[in-house]
Each structure stands twice: as C-alpha cells, then as structure tokens.
Amino acid sequence: MIAACAMQCLHAHRVRIICMQCPYAMPLMPYGRPAGLLQKRIQAKISGDRSGQRFITGRNKHALPSVCAGLLALSSLSSCSDWTRPESVEIHAPTLEEQDPELYAQYLQNLREYKSSDHKMVMAVIENQKGAAPTSQGYRPSAYPDSIDFICLADAENLHPQYLDEITVTQRKGTKVLYRIDYADIRSEWEILHPETPAENAETAEDRNDADTPDTGNEDFFNYCRQRTESLAGLCGQYGFDGIVMAYGGDAPANLNDEDMAILTGGMNAFNTVMKAWKDANPSKLLLFSGLPQNLPETGILADCTYIIVNAETAVSKDELSVMIRKACVEGVPADRFIVGVAAAAPGNALSDEGWFTADADGNSVRAIEGAADWVMTADSFKKCGISVSDAHNDYFSSDAAVFPNIRKAITRMNHIGR
Fold it and tell me: Is pLDDT at 97 greater than 70 in this prediction?
C-alpha cells in the first residue's frame, strides 16, 4: 500500500509521499527532483536492471536510499489509529510507615505522649460543607501538622465517606477530631421553617397576654431546639468523633428586650440541657465551648467544658486579645481554661482584613496566628491554654516551602517543637 501511495503522489515533477490515512502530508524528498527520474530508480531497483545505476551517480547517488528508508519507516506504521496512546502511570511513593513500620509506630507513640503532656493547645477549624468531600488539602484533617491537638469540623451532618477515613488517620496521631454544634444555626433553621407573618409581627406581647389562649410559639421552638440538638449530638458516636464544640456568640442579654430574652433563655436552656445530658452519658468524650461566654443567659454548662474558646477574630493587637478575654471573665465563667480564637488570613488578603494584627512598634504587621501565639506565652490573671484558628484552610497555601507555615510557627513558639 505504501508503494502505491508513493506512485500516486508523484505529480507535477515533484515528489511527495503521503500517508493516505493521515491528514498530514509527510514529504520525504526535497522538492525539485524530477518525478520520472525517481520512478526509474525505483523500477530499476525492483527489476534488478543495472542500467538504472547510471542515475545513481554523483549528487544523486544518495537519493534512493533516503527514499527507501522513508518508505520503510512508513511501512512500520500500519495506521495512525494504531499509534501508542499516552496513559497515566501510577507512581507509588512509600510512606514512612511502609518503609519502617517499627520506627513509625515509635513516632506515633511519641506524638501521643506529647499531646497528653502539659503544653499549649492548637486547634484548627475546618469550614467543611455539608455532605461534600474535601475540596483541597486545606480541608483534609490528615494534611494538618501532626503535632496539632484538635481538628474541628464546622458541619458533621451527612458527612462524606472520605472524611471518615480522614478522621481515622488523624486520630492515630493522637489528634482529637471534634465537630461544632452552633445554637445560632438551630435558631436560623427554625426561622426559615417558621417565618413570621405580618399579623404576628404586629401582635405585641401585651395583646397575647390579654387573650385566653396561651402562646405556644416559643414552646414549639424550645422543643425543636431540644430535638435538633439531640439529633446533632448523636452524630458524635455515629461517625466516631472525639467530642463536640458547642457554640454561642449572640448578643449580650443586656441588649435584648424582654421577649427576645425569654426566647434566648428558653432556647439555650433546651440546648444546654441536651449537651449536659450528652456529656454525662459520654464521660470519655470532650465538650468545649466556643463563642462569647459572657453572653450566655446561664453559664453552668461551662463547668463541664474542657476548654472555653473566646472568639477574638476581630482583634487587631495583643492588647485587644487581653481585653476580649477579660470581658469573658464574668461570674460563672471559669478562668482557668481559655483558648483564644483568631482567623487565618486568606492568601493575598490585605493587611487591614481579618487575620492580621496592626503594625507593631517597629512598623511591622504580623499575622494574627503568630501574634496570638506570642500573646499566649505572656502571663496574666487568667490562664491562657492555647489558640484556635478559624478558616484554617487559608493557611495551607503560602510563599513558604512548608504547608500550614503559620500554624507550624505557632506550635513551635508555644511548645518549642518544629512539626
């Protein structure tokens, strides 16, 4: 077939050999050679006619070998469809555990011993999406530094199976994996399910008191809050979490009117009652509080919390961190278990945005993670137990060679370790 192609493509006293199954022309001879001359050379070679040798002299003596070589190369390709297609090759990089299981087991043991010792805590909060798999390394618990103490998922409902594997791997390192239950989310769900009508908005508490029928709207919400909290608390055992972070960061009671205060008191009572019962039934599990403890209508539940995380994402200096903690030191709030909550600055974030402290005396701006770590190491009238980093996925990407560089720096500064 190749020879036929070659003969068919001799035209206009020029030579071009084309693969008939390919859209690309493949010239094997320079233009300008007489077609008849080439044809005679090929025929002489095939028939053994030595008279054809007179054409293979001088500057033309290398022409036929080049043509034959080209034809041979084309004959080795049966068709374009048979060309080798590129395929991905899976490259397995052996882990430390695979290379030296005994050494890795000792490493894990050392990690667990460190985490059970007296040291400053570091928590990373992952804002995962309900039902979704991790979208990047910053959303994978196992990708965080091995020496981190807590990983907290923002949403544990309909947890994607990939997170189950992540939880198992992370817990082997002694890291506690928690999830958050936020009272504000439950309240928002209720308001979406039961929007108030204009008539209800116009009706005042006094009008309801004059009526003979009792107002059951608040009781319906309290029951919903209780049932919803029970359902969410049950996810701890279902997915194998190490504990729960209960959250409330709403307005101070002094800023609420009587009706709103009654709703908050009843709702938080239902919320706290369920969490108290869950903790009593699961003494080996951890219970933490996150938010603004001074705004709780009742603080008794805090005695059952291992740590109290004070939200200080809006702070722009170390002094402001101290102010926010002191505001939380009200009656009923234990002062021996504070963790300060700051945010990880997004990549490319302006210095004035969340996640940064304002310039220090030398005019240098620092990330809130680093500033909070330095602040934790100073003495005060309350106990500073560590830091919590919200939007922790933002710290994965950095100009530094290491991933999560600022979280690693915070761990190193507070505990003098490098991993």
Answer: yes
